[in-house]
Design goal:
The chain has 106 residues and is mainly α. The protein is built from three helices and no strands.
């Protein structure tokens, strides 16, 4: 019986630190790998950067389109823009021009 009582005595002194280590390990694991952990934080930052890049590209494209629309307004029409649109829509050109057709738009 001496061995069993010795194990019980030592087990009482070990249970507290072991339990603390298990809890620390549990929280450390979730700090790194959890739903809101460090790895998820890095993935979220990567998504934010990609989305900001797309937003910047779309803002630039929108500004270009708005500029072209402004040039085509009836009260301030640009002659070069008008000529370009007429050539595209009607498919005409000057007699001394060489026209190269492409299927990029289709």
């Amino acid at each position: 019986m001496g061995l069993l009582s010795e194990v019980r005595l030592r087990a009482r002194h070990i249970v507290g630190p072991v339990l603390c280590l298990v809890l620390v390990g549990y929280f450390a694991h979730h700090l790194v790998n959890g739903e809101r952990g460090f790895i998820a934080f890095l993935q979220l930052n990567k998504q934010i950067q990609e989305t900001e890049g797309k937003a910047a590209f779309l803002a630039k494209k929108r500004a270009q389109i708005e500029n072209r629309v402004t040039l085509m307004l009836p009260d301030q029409i640009d002659p070069d823009m008008l000529e370009e649109q007429v050539r595209i829509i009607l498919g005409v050109g000057h007699p001394d021009e060489v026209v190269i057709l492409s299927n990029k738009g289709e």
